[in-house]
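seq as requested:
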Amino acid sequence: MKRKSFHTLIAGILGLSILSCNAPAEQAIKKESWGQTPDGKAVNLYTLKSSSGLEVKITDFGGVITAVNAPDKSGKVDNVVLGFDDLSLYLEKRSFFGAIIGRYGNRIDKGQFTLNDSTYQLSLNDGPNHLHGGTNGFDQKVWDATPIDAPEGPALKLTYLSKDGEEGYPGNLEVTVTYTLKGDSLIVDYLANTDKATPVNLTNHSFFNLAGRGSILDHELTIEANAYTPVNETLIPTGEIKAVEGTPFDFTEPHLIGERINQVPGGYDHNYALNKSEKGAMTFASKLKDPESGRTMEIYTEEPGLQFYSGNFLDGSQKSGDWAFEQYNGLCLETQHFPDSPNHENFPSTILNPDETYQTRTIMVFGVEK
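struct tokens:
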């Protein structure tokens, strides 16, 4: 089945509202208590359900997407993201499963950057580097949550104030992330403002498995990118933007993930420079398909990059029910700016200034092909 034209798809996503504007949010979103953090903060779980039957569960702890319940070609519904049924499992071992990542998604070399003649040292939590916001990033925070009866469909708005100096970052950063469910589409809107120049790179870190269980090596992947950013031994970009043609990184045409993964030492954990004719334009980024179940997911984004991570470090130490998450049981497709951008002038800038607003949208469209 061919992909719908981009304009047709976006028109469908952003067109007529699913809900009556007068319908209370409680009818669209179910809220339930989900425990509390070790410091006593109450945590809630929100369930959003669209008119098409797609169901998404989100907690205000880390803005984590705990479940995306989607049907396969025979109508069987499974959770297609790695997640847990209990808050305690998210607290036991940091996994980033489904979480909002910030203040800076991905890695910063040695946790250092220079901005406006000042050098900043961030926390180090990935060997010699800073990863996904540091030792206590946005994925570890309890966000303020507000259910919204949005024109597009049921939505959950999450807000958080990252104070000046948190994890070493400059400036007070006010962040809003809104999840909106419309039909078969999950729309993620990111918004941020600062009172001091700071790098910002927000993303969602869901691990997908469209089969609902087992390996993702038989998933078929397409990435709309002619180039990627090679990395060194600690997964920091070298600064080169290299063509994917003739390499195992070429997913411009569909390939099974397991087809060439043995040619990539350690597995895939690389940023792709998406094909963009216009800066900030909403464009198709990626398509994931599980041929067995028929489930598909298409990603559209305004971001310039996409991190493809093949779940290399999953080691069976975390599980949901009787399923222990082993290597290659889930994969990430994180829309983003490039890793370590503050240290590479040739990469798209991630610096947010006080007179600017950080605003970006990513759309995940779930479907079935028989």
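The longest strand covers residues 358-368.
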